[in-house]
Amino acid sequence: MIKNDIALAIEKKSEFSRAKSLLIVDAVLDSLKESLAKDEKIEIRGFASFKVVPKKTGYGRDIRRKKQIKIKKGKRIKFRPGQELKNIKNK
Taking the model in full, what pTM does it have? Predict the structure, then answer.
């Protein structure tokens, strides 16, 4: 599913036009991005939660050159599905 598919689903379930549905999807995604950029936790009950967590410095292997490389520390986004999403997936 892509962004346009989500906008189409909103259009079918509401009285909004395709353009307005796309604006809604963009607004929601922009809000999510801004929250994650501020390291805030996002929780959508029944669906999932997103959390920014620190990533440690580590080592990996460059298989082409057969050398060990250092992986810099940073941040990553952790996705955790909600119970309703787990139940749908496990049916």
Answer: 0.77
Instruction: Classify 73 as helix, strand or coil.
Output: coil
Show the DSSP H helices in 14-67 as ranges: 18-37
Q: Say whether both 91 and 54 belong to one domain.
A: yes
Per-residue pLDDT tens over the stretch 51-90 = 999 999 999 999 999 899 999 999 999 999 999 998 988 8
Is 86 strand, coil or helix?
Answer: helix
- 64 with 90, same domain: the answer is yes
CA quadruple 85, 86, 90, 91: dihedral, nearest 10:
-40
